[in-house]
Design a protein that fits this description.
With 553 residues, the protein is α/β, with parallel strands linked by helices. It is 46% helix and 11% strand. Strands 1-2-15-12-10-11 form a six-stranded mixed beta sheet, with helices on both faces. Strands 6-5-7-8-9 form a five-stranded parallel beta sheet, sandwiched between helices. A hairpin with a 2-residue loop joins strand 1 and strand 2. Bound molecules: 6-O-phosphono-beta-D-fructofuranose.
């Protein structure tokens, strides 16, 4: 891997600094003076229409950002990723989530192996399994059909499947529910299993490494719950435990040997590969629970959506390439306009877990302080990503976005077609909802001047509190409807935005060493909570452990 180019050493960076210093944001003036702004700064990527015109950018800023991309070699790094080069240097791995959605007729040889063939072999097995569960052909040990699928996994082995299960709720098969257990807080397993019948419940243990403490602990809890429940109901007579586990447990992992050690029949295990990062894995077999819920056909549509966005990212010239433009804009906001955070505000209740999903994707990828050659980064990196669906956010935190002192770039996402078209008398409620989407971005961009506040007859002393400065940057993302394909496109869009930012900063967006220390210390501390000697702990840690011991009955 060539050494990363220090972005701050480029001519474009220096120019961007000058542009930032001279910037006097004036979205009202910019729109008034330039009737073509909205059209020129709106882009199409697959089924998405992305309007960047309400961003804090001028043509010159955009042009200079594109020069920055050029100077740091963004496109050659992108091409290296698509080719399967080991761009994840700290783990010496290819980064090939894009291969998970290549069509079956494609070929891509990586490290001497046609990965597309491997991907489609596993996909076919996942699809067969999904069909068996959906049709009732796959039964539990008592011969009853499966009614609930419980995915056990955490991080990338949970957030993607949950988010997509929620997002695609209208496509689920009635009578077949998915639930998700992730947290090692025993409450999660206890509450999720409540009311379930072991005879009709199937568990999917999803773990790339099959070594994650949370997932393996929860998997053991679920296995014990299953066997105890079946035994109590007399359902195990004539069967041994292994038979029951084989009917009620399947696994998804890259570590199939560990799956077998756990007692899951390797026949019922779906593999994937070390070139799929955990947070980039929901379109691999990690999405098995989703494939069961929405069916193979819809799952394949979602993969096609991912692929359409991949193709856009791979082959569209940078000046029209939406993930590149959005990624570069995020660099602009972060490094030149001092934005610390980035809000994602879906005007779609079904996307209520999308911000949480993006938090792992973006922050685990770009929350790095060293570059891929081990040298320190030369500028700020990953923003804090957060969000909630509109309009709930409007009644909670939008005050700060509208009138606070910080720059908070926000992505607004909406769909023309509602998932559930309801009317309130004569009013189409979706229209009312989308009116909010449009109104918010307008208010954020153009604000309300003191003059306009006065025109409403406001008492002079109240005017300042009612002024909206405007010039608060947003991007508006619209699509016809939240279909499986559009969901795939949206996810891939953010994957490639994340890639673009990481490439500019020169970081390896595909490792996650920052989660290791806490995991390691938790293993050390567990015996101390149970009563071990705490004398060599720091005083704060000792006091926390003492408190726990005194209060635990
Ligand atoms: O939090 C670290 C991490 O490795 C994530 O990257 C990953 O998605 C999660 O843990 C779960 O890992 P696994 O799928 O191996 O259980």
């Amino acid at each position: 891997m060539p050494a990363p180019v220090d972005p701050t050493s480029t001519g474009a960076w220096a120019r961007l600094r000058e542009l930032a210093d001279a910037l006097e944001p004036d979205l009202r003036g910019w729109f008034a003076a330039d009737p073509g702004r909205a059209e020129r700064l709106a882009f199409t990527a697959a089924d998405l229409r992305v309007d960047l015109s309400k961003g804090l950018l001028t043509d010159e800023i955009l042009q200079t950002l594109l020069e920055l991309a050029d100077e740091v070699g963004l496109e050659s790094r992108r091409d290296a990723m698509f080719r399967g080069e080991h761009i994840n240097v700290t783990e010496d791995r290819a980064v090939l989530h894009t291969a998970l959605r290549l069509p079956a007729e494609a070929t891509l040889e990586v490290d001497g192996q046609d990965v597309v063939k491997d991907v489609h072999e596993v996909l076919q097995r996942v699809y067969r399994f999904a069909d068996q569960v959906r049709s009732g052909e796959w039964t539990g040990i008592t011969g009853q059909r499966i009614e609930t699928v419980v995915n056990i996994g955490i991080g990338g082995s949970d957030l993607g499947p949950v988010m997509a299960y929620e997002a695609l709720a209208p496509y689920r098969q009635p009578g077949l529910e998915c639930r998700f257990i992730s947290n090692i807080d025993p409450t999660d397993a206890a509450v999720t299993l409540e009311g379930l019948d072991p005879a009709t419940t199937l568990f999917i243990v999803s773990s790339k490494t099959f070594g994650t403490l949370e997932t393996l602990t929860n998997a053991r809890l679920c296995r014990a719950w299953l066997l105890e429940g079946l035994r109590t109901a007399g359902a195990l007579e004539g069967h041994d435990d292994a038979e029951a586990v084989a009917r009620h447990f399947v696994a998804v992992s890259t570590a199939l040997d560990k799956v077998a050690d756990f007692g899951i029949d390797p026949e019922n295990a779906f593999g994937f590969w070390d070139w799929v990062g955990g947070r980039y894995s929901m379109d691999s077999a990690i999405g098995t629970s989703l494939a069961v819920a929405i069916g193979p056909e819809r799952f394949a549509e979602m993969l096609a959506g991912f692929h359409a966005m991949d193709e856009h990212f791979r082959s569209t010239p940078a000046e029209q390439n939406v993930p590149i433009l959005m990624g570069l804009l995020n660099v602009w906001y972060t490094n030149f306009l001092d934005a610390q955070t980035h809000a994602v505000l879906p005007y779609a209740q079904l996307l209520h877990r999308f911000p949480a999903y993006l938090q792992q994707l973006t922050m685990e990828s770009n929350g790095k302080g060293v570059r891929w050659d081990g040298t320190p980064v030369t500028t700020d990196t990953g923003e804090v990503w957060w969000g909630e669906p509109g309009t709930n956010g409007q009644h909670a935190f939008y005050q700060l976005i509208h009138q606070g002192t910080r720059v908070i770039p926000a992505d607004f996402i909406a769909f023309a077609e509602p998932a559930y078209p309801l009317r309130d008398g004569a009013t189409d409620v979706h229209e009312l909802f989308l009116a909010n989407f449009v109104a918010q971005t307008r208010a954020l961009a153009f604000g309300k001047t003191a003059e306009e506040v006065r025109e409403e007859g406001t008492a002079e002393e109240l005017v300042p509190a009612r002024v909206f400065t405007g010039n608060r940057p947003t991007a508006s993302l619209l699509a016809p409807a939240l279909t499986p394909s559009v969901l795939g496109q949206l996810i891939a869009l953010y994957e490639h935005i994340t890639f673009t930012q990481g490439a500019v900063w020169g970081i390896d967006s595909f490792d996650q060493w920052g989660v290791e220390l806490g995991k390691q210390l938790a293993q050390e501390i567990a015996p101390l909570l149970a009563g071990g000697d705490t004398s060599d702990q720091d005083s704060s840690t000792r006091a926390l452990i003492d408190y726990y011991r005194r209060h635990r009955r």
